[in-house]
Design goal:
The complex is a heterodimer of chains A (about 375) and B (about 220). With about 375 residues, chain A is an alpha+beta fold. Chain A is about 55% helix and about 10% strand. Chain A has 15 helices and 6 strands. The chains are: A alpha+beta (about 375), B alpha+beta (about 220).
């Protein structure tokens, strides 16, 4: 049970710097909390209202008192120990909620003050910070983590400065994860081998590399890198923007919404490149939704109309997967084998996935 | 621990190694650990630094209460982790039925306010040398009890497991400036600089120095 404490005018309930373990409620009289403002050094007096709690933060947070609690007029206060206060508060949850709101406002205010004074230091812009975090994970072969961060980058900055590169990194991380597993495989990024070299290979340099790549004839670039170059400061074309919006929905598992987005791009056909990509991704959404028949129909139609679609191998793999899920392993194997007979990149994720699937189904 | 079975709609499970949130990601939820351990990390230069390992029933991500602020660290599942995920909009629902969690959050906010105020005190010092000295005083006060930082070597000598980058960050100055000041302190034999730690020769000397520079 809390005790009642009686204090004479001009006495002090606690001093700044005291290690406090008591919480007070003013019942009668006048008490003032005196302290000096951190920033200006000015003396501040905060008069406590009757019924108000004081000394809560330092007692709960177990840190020294930050003010002198001075009695202005004879006062009586209720004195709680921390456990007593907790029992009391647990029965008056509204009080805790109210205090949580007060505390969170104070936290916001002091956080803002800190930020204002930190402003002149080299604060990292969150977009660049997020991208570099993903880059760090990829460089250090932490593929699952790289996948997550690049996915988040695309979710928050679908038309961001580094969106295209993030898309490429996401794909590299996926492929490496599938092929080698976390922590294994050859250097996924320039500078992966030696940490010192990695540090020098800053993001700026990575961007230069990207620009060099873009200068090459498009035919030499890999399919994922075919997206139109987006020089710094220039907006991505609308088709690209809508496309990455849909990709970001897909990466969050919102297949139905992503499907709608891809369909609009595919139907509009404004940009042949993005419309082809969107066509392919519509099928991925259908697979995500376990709509095996619709996915098979969709891809069959693309194969008939666009036999040279850049994502052919991936489509065949997904068709194999759909047949497998439908309970037809023979047809599934047929599609997986077809992926392996296709010409092209030995390391493509479709080939790796097809090989894995065939192994899992009991040999080739 | 209170009965949380009614909150299954807020339950999330993460596999070992899975990221719960990443540094710099905008955050609007915070988490209550129900099972498994969570590693809090930060990438500093080319090193992923472990800041903390948390376990049930700890709360993390609570700074999401600050609107629009990006996450200041990454949270990764160490084991299979079960959490309850909340945000500003629905946390009241949880708190109403679970005073113990509300109290835990209240304690955490109290501590965060203090930590931020303490950082603010460093930043308001005008003298750059005093700022650097005050960083060590802060570390000594807030982490003095733990064996990690502020460990007593002998007498007034204290050892801190921090790097120049860490000190520069807390002092709100660039690394080169912090390096210069620490070099100066080292010449005066007030500190010893090592790769992974900094030793303050006389912590009381730093206290007097900082107090003399603070506005009264």
């Amino acid at each position: 049970m809390p005790k009642v404490g009686v204090y004479r005018a001009n006495s002090v309930i606690y001093f700044q710097g005291d290690q406090g373990d008591k919480i007070f409620v003013l019942q009668r009289g006048r008490v003032s909390l005196n302290y000096s403002d951190i920033e200006t050094g000015k003396d501040i007096r905060e008069v406590i209202q009757t019924g108000e709690f004081f000394g809560v933060k330092s007692a709960l947070g177990r840190y020294p008192r930050e003010e002198n609690a001075v009695v202005l007029e004879d006062a009586s206060v209720l004195v709680f120990t921390v456990p007593e206060y907790e029992v009391f508060a647990a029965q008056n949850i509204r009080i805790i909620i109210k205090m949580l709101k007060v505390f969170s406002n104070q936290l916001r205010r002091v956080h803002k003050q800190v930020e204002n004074l930190m402003e002149n230091t080299s604060a990292v812009n969150p977009e660049t910070g997020l991208f570099k975090t993903g880059e760090y994970y990829l460089r250090n072969r932490m593929y699952s983590q790289a996948k997550y961060v690049m996915g988040r980058y695309l979710t928050y900055y679908p038309a961001g400065r580094m969106a295209e590169q993030a898309g490429r990194y996401l794909e590299s991380a996926e492929t490496a994860l599938m092929r080698y597993g976390d922590g294994k495989g050859p250097a996924p990024l320039a500078g992966s081998a030696s940490p010192a070299a990695a540090q020098r290979k800053s993001f700026q340099e990575a961007e230069q590399v990207e620009e060099e790549e873009e200068a090459r004839p498009a035919a030499q670039a890999r399919p994922a890198a075919q997206a139109k170059p987006s020089p710094q400061g220039q907006e991505l074309p609308d088709a690209a923007k809508s496309y990455y919006n849909a990709v970001s929905l897909f990466s969050q598992g919102k297949y139905q919404e992503a499907l709608k987005g891809f369909k609009i791009i595919a139907d509009a056909g404004d940009d042949p490149e993005y419309s082809a990509k969107a066509q392919f991704d519509m099928g991925r959404c259908l697979v995500g939704l376990s709509q095996w028949d619709l996915a098979l129909q969709h891809y069959t139609r693309i194969i008939q109309t666009l036999p040279k679609h850049p994502d052919m191998a991936d489509m065949l793999f997904l068709m194999g997967q759909a047949w497998e899920k439908k309970g037809d392993p023979e047809r599934a194997k047929g599609f997986f084998k077809k992926v392996l007979t296709m010409n092209g990149d030995e390391d493509s994720s479709a080939r790796i996935k097809a090989k894995k699937a065939l192994n899992a189904m009991g040999g080739t | 621990m209170s009965d949380l079975s009614g909150f299954s709609r807020f339950a999330r499970t993460y596999q070992p190694g899975e990221i719960i949130f990443s540094e710099y990601e905008p955050g609007d939820s915070f988490y209550l650990i129900q099972g498994g351990r969570v590693r809090i990390t930060k990438i500093v230069g080319e090193i992923e630094k472990n800041i903390d390992i948390l376990q049930p029933p700890e709360i993390f991500g609570e700074m999401a209460i600050l609107e629009g602020a990006p996450r200041s660290a990454t949270a990764i599942a160490v084991d299979t982790v079960k959490v309850l995920e909340f945000n500003r909009a629905n946390f009241e629902i949880l708190m109403m039925g679970n005073p113990q969690i509300a109290l835990r959050l209240l304690r955490l906010f109290a501590k965060r306010i203090y930590d931020q105020k303490r950082r603010f005190m460093i930043l308001t010092l005008e003298d750059p040398q005093a700022k650097i000295a005050d960083v060590f005083l802060m570390l000594y006060e807030t982490q003095g009890a733990s064996s990690q930082a502020g460990a007593e070597v002998d007498g007034d000598k204290r050892e801190f497991k921090v790097t120049v980058e860490d000190v520069a960050h807390w002092a709100g100055m660039n690394i080169a400036e912090a390096q210069t000041i620490l070099g100066h302190f080292s010449n005066q034999r007030r500190v010893e600089l090592y790769q992974d730690r900094i030793v303050v020769k006389n912590i009381n000397d730093f206290t007097r120095f900082v107090n003399s520079k603070r506005k009264k």
